[in-house]
Write a structure and sequence with these properties.
With 297 residues, the protein is of the alpha+beta class. The chain contains two helices and 14 strands, in the order αβββαβββββββββββ.
């Protein structure tokens, strides 16, 4: 074991510079591309600070009462275009087909990327709480243009208690309506710990007209600048044209997050136990592992 640890340490030291150089080149490429787009849309060459954040990750999970492993490639970004008076943002994110923990895009790493689809577009930030989006869902057989609107609001009761609620509406040319409403109650224990009761309802206009309901109890705990944990209890329910309302599963797990290299490589480990309707609510044990990279400026 000590020889293995010594080998890993030596390789890490030797390749540290290579990783830093590779990461810096990608960050500069994103930064230059975003700056050109910002100048084109704003028709301005003014010198302004350029900031962005883009996060990519790969999640793999295995479960005792399921055959094989599942994979999901994730990407999320919200990139301000400052020359447009902070009204326009560029966004890129993977498309989520479900709000449940069973969201996956393949049975191996290659499939998780090839089978994924993404949303790319512009986000228009108004002076009100209403914001608009337009773009295209791609990496599908036919690109699917969409328009959307989001609304968010926070209502504080006092310094430690608040309610956050909002709605996200998308209309796709091919996929049609996709609407999500959420309402969360949050209690702050102290500077490093929050309790949250999170609730979301999603309606997808497709052949089955599916309704998805997710209710969660979570405890967000910051351990230090790089680490945090989220114990959670969830129950997920659905209804559609084929089945009436039913509980699909109950979930009890804890997520551990740690940034392990510089400020841009992280991993998450989430052991959990599930009680699924399909298994007559017998216990099924599950482990999720995620590794990700953040690019920012």
């Amino acid at each position: 074991m000590k020889y293995l640890l010594s080998f890993i340490f030596t390789v890490s030291v030797l390749y540290a510079g290579v990783l830093d150089t590779w990461h810096k080149k990608i960050e500069d490429f994103f930064g230059n591309t975003i700056e050109k787009l910002d100048k084109f849309l704003s028709e301005s060459n003014a010198s302004v600070p350029q900031k962005y954040s883009l996060e990519t990750s790969l999640r793999v999970f295995t479960e005792s009462k399921k055959i094989g492993s599942g994979y999901k490639f994730n990407i999320t970004s919200k990139i301000p275009l400052p020359r447009t008076q902070k009204r326009l943002y560029l966004f890129l994110q993977d498309f989520k087909r479900t709000t449940s923990i069973d969201e996956q895009s393949g049975n191996n790493i290659r499939d998780s990327i090839d089978n994924n689809s993404y949303l790319l577009g512009l986000f228009y930030n108004t002076k009100s709480k209403l914001k608009f989006r337009a773009g295209v869902r791609f990496h599908t057989i036919t690109p699917d243009p969409f328009v959307g609107a989001t609304f968010t609001h926070t209502y504080p009761f006092d310094q430690k208690n608040r309610i956050e609620f909002g709605n996200s509406l998308y209309y796709y040319l091919d996929r049609k309506l996709d609407n999500t409403f959420y309402a969360n109650y949050i209690h702050q224990f102290n500077a490093t710990q929050n309790f949250a009761f999170e609730n979301s309802y999603r309606y997808i206009q497709d052949q089955e007209n599916e309704h998805q309901i997710l209710n969660s109890f979570k405890l967000y705990t910051v351990l230090d600048a790089n680490r945090f944990t989220i114990p959670s209890f969830q129950f997920y329910s659905t209804t559609n044209q084929k089945r009436s309302y039913h509980v699909d599963y109950l979930y009890l797990g804890i997520k551990y997050h740690d940034t392990i290299w510089r400020k841009w490589i992280f991993y998450e480990l989430t052991p959990a136990v599930l009680f699924r309707e399909i298994n007559n609510f017998q216990a099924s044990y599950r482990v999720d592992f995620t590794v990700g990279i953040t690019f920012s400026k």
